[in-house]
Amino acid sequence: MAYRRDYVVTLRIFEPLVVHSELQDRQVEDNRSRIEEQISHDADKRLISLPPSPVADSFRRTPIFLPASQTSDGVDRFCPAQEDIRGWEALESLAEHTSKATLDIVAPKSARRRAASRRAEWLQDAKDTRIFTRVSAWDVPPSWWLFFSLSEDQIITEETDEGLRVLIRTDILAASARMEWASETIADTSKVVDMVEQTSVLAEWIDTFDMNSILELDLGGMSDVLWPSDAAELVDSWVTALSNNDSESAVSAFQKYAAGWEQLNLYARSS
Length: 271
Fold this sequence. Notes:
This protein has helices at 32-47, 83-97, 100-106, 109-125, 142-145, 172-189, 193-206, 223-226, 231-243, 247-270; strands at residues 8-16, 59-66, 77-81, 133-137, 154-160, 163-171, 214-218. By secondary structure, the chain is of the alpha+beta class.
């Protein structure tokens, strides 16, 4: 059994199979658990390898399916497993924020050269370079909550052998409209630079996908910690107050959210 990475929170886009001709003959199944297990086993092997191997193998030929039986419109959808692509991005970020001595230990030059070469090949050959999956550790970034309305969206709670797992799903048109409104409001009224940048990037990102896609927030192994939560409501209240020029309510909502975020930071450090 693979090592459990309970701290991972995932945002996924499931796009309809009908817009991808190369997948038309694929058998659609509920394969999420199997693919996640394969990815975790690969990560385990790389973790103990010498020299270290920081970037995952390609899993893009084995997408995660969202079968029609699990959707209200009866459409089969998929989300490609892009562990290698996200690994390249993480390695690039690590190189920007880590000393050379530490970087050479975590990701030797040979591994960085190999990753750069494979990334260059992918960028040259790939017809579709979109990133379908975003990952966070320990918490849901506040900007992600702006995609969702918990009173309207589908919330799935599952009791598994590992514990509670919560999935929140919404159609991409609703998610895009919410983020566009939030992004414009924050850009016009907020001084929180990180949120201005994050919401702008997310608004552009989601609009690159088919309009019949589904956006899913998977709380994973953090479900017991993050659910139920008033975080989504507080972030929405903050943006709504900004749009109404109600600075007092905006500050109050932001401070309440920040207090909860500090508690999660303590939880992450203690773990």
